[in-house]
Specification:
Length: about 240
């Protein structure tokens, strides 16, 4: 999958480690890349940093950038779990499924990701300013840091969820359009034959098979006609 560089660049500028892998996984599963990056920061980064790490944690049970637990996920027992791209893809698939299950409720989806319960407070995190936040709230603080939103300007949860959904939809749409454009064959322009009795555009213009003039005997009228044909071709492909 070809991912537009904008999402990767924005994440990297905010100090997100493994930004290309996270952006690619987010686009593949239709998740807001900043939200996915915020989960990585919460899982393997820590308060005050947007950079997750590719580590084994949680007493040896949490694997990789998103700490996939081998007690619940067979994937975590494979070598792919320590590949940041594969790990991000697995986590993005989980998060996408949870968002669908809970009707787009970001808080519930994040709580379920952490604790298996959409209403659990989850693992608490103490930030540098002394604030202690539950899992979902801590992820959203990372999210605001990554997107550049201040805590004081935090919108209501319903509005924030709508913004996340819109960002996810936009990222997925751009990625899809980019891939479709890259997959489209490049076709040579088709030129009309002005004289039905002549079988090729080149012959109609007094050109040989290589497109060169037979004795450079193309007149001004031919040049005007060529321009009109080119303009017609451009209009038909717009």
């Amino acid at each position: 999958m070809i991912v537009p560089p904008l999402a990767q660049t924005q994440l990297a500028q905010q100090g997100v480690r493994y930004a290309p892998q996270i952006a690619r996984a987010a686009a593949r599963h239709g998740v807001d890349p900043a939200l996915l990056a915020a989960v990585a920061a919460q899982e393997t980064g820590g308060p005050g940093t947007n950079a997750g790490s590719n580590i084994v944690g949680d007493g040896g049970h949490g694997h990789g950038l998103f700490q996939i637990d081998d007690r619940w996920h067979t994937f975590a027992k494979s070598s792919r779990a320590m590949d940041p791209g594969s790990n991000a893809d697995y986590a993005a698939g989980m998060l996408s499924g949870l968002l669908r299950r809970y009707g787009g409720n970001v808080g519930e989806a994040l709580s379920a990701y952490n604790a298996g319960d959409p209403h659990a407070r989850g693992t608490p995190t103490r930030w540098g300013d002394g604030q202690v936040l539950g899992y979902a709230d801590s992820v959203m603080r990372h999210y605001r840091n990554i997107t550049g939103e201040s805590a004081a300007g935090q919108p209501p949860s319903s509005t924030l969820e709508s913004c996340i959904a819109e960002r996810a939809s936009a990222a997925a749409s751009v990625a899809t359009l980019t891939n479709q454009a890259m997959a489209m064959p490049v076709r040579a322009p088709q030129f009309p034959v002005s004289n039905p009795g002549v079988t090729s555009w080149a012959a109609a213009r007094g050109l040989d098979a290589t497109g060169h003039s037979r004795g450079n005997k193309i007149g001004a009228a031919d040049l005007v006609s060529d321009t009109e044909d080119d303009n017609a071709g451009e209009a038909s492909t717009s």
